[in-house]
Amino acid sequence: MRKLSTIAGLAALALTVTACGGGTTTLAEPSGRAGSTGSSGGTIVIGTANFTENVTLGYVYAGYLKSKGYEVTVKPNLGSREVIFPALQNGDIDLLPEYQGSLLLYLDKESKAADGAAQAAELKGKLPAGLKLLPFAPAEDKTIWMVTRATAAKYGLKSLEDLKKANGKLVYGGPPEDKTRRVGIVGLKDVYGAEFKAFRALDAGGPLTKTALKKGDIDVADIFSSDAEISSNDWVGLEDPQRLQPNENIAPVVREQKADDKLTAAFEALNPKLTTEALIQMNHKTDVEKEDPEDVADEWLKSTGLVS
């Protein structure tokens, strides 16, 4: 549903960070319409990763919290987890829309927790001091390793276990961090014995990766399971019998000083509406219909009755 352990003098990040889909943002500048509400509900700075779904989730959180009286700023497209998680630790942002499985593996490469409840329990003990995991939503967005139907037929690929039959022949494409992440090149080799001819650093399940797969510039692509374009392309998702990819329920991670009972209650009310199907529908609007993520978030919140 993608290492820096610290940010050396956040001045580096306060320079410009470029988003996958073009455009820029910085840690120093607010973005979007979800700004000051003039109320006394508290202030929250939401940061997001540099792919459209996470940006949309940031605006979903922002719009909903704004309706609850919070003053909210969104800083979208800040980068990968290796960038934005240290920013959260350092206090440059207050809250992140996260994916539990990948976050847990980021914190503990040896974790075997696969389902949402087990992951949440482990995360509560492994998050750095000063951070808190809030309740997770039923919505999930996992990595699915995709090949074209022609590639699947040529090499007899049905599951990730079959990749080793084509060792040294296939080009893998995905975000740069896939080269060192367990849910990426490292895990595919350790768990399935897969070795690739080359790795192409592209984007996190975005237009660069999908275009490269369509054109044949890469053979295996890291695509998000909630991607609305999967159904319109003749791609084959490789089965993952060893569960290299854990569950990826979406949950906010927040600085403890902001995580009061009111904030927790807000997400407990929001979460039941935030399903995988809702995620796919929002992704279709942003990725296929090319609508603005903030507009899509606002429309979804109103359609569910979460905001008026």
TrEMBL record:
<keyword id="KW-0732">Signal</keyword>
<feature type="region of interest" description="Disordered">
    <location>
        <begin position="284"/>
        <end position="308"/>
    </location>
</feature>
<feature type="signal peptide">
    <location>
        <begin position="1"/>
        <end position="19"/>
    </location>
</feature>
<dbReference type="InterPro" id="IPR007210">
    <property type="entry name" value="ABC_Gly_betaine_transp_sub-bd"/>
</dbReference>
<protein>
    <submittedName>
        <fullName>ABC transporter substrate-binding protein</fullName>
    </submittedName>
</protein>
<feature type="domain" description="ABC-type glycine betaine transport system substrate-binding">
    <location>
        <begin position="43"/>
        <end position="302"/>
    </location>
</feature>
<feature type="compositionally biased region" description="Acidic residues">
    <location>
        <begin position="289"/>
        <end position="298"/>
    </location>
</feature>
<dbReference type="Pfam" id="PF04069">
    <property type="entry name" value="OpuAC"/>
</dbReference>
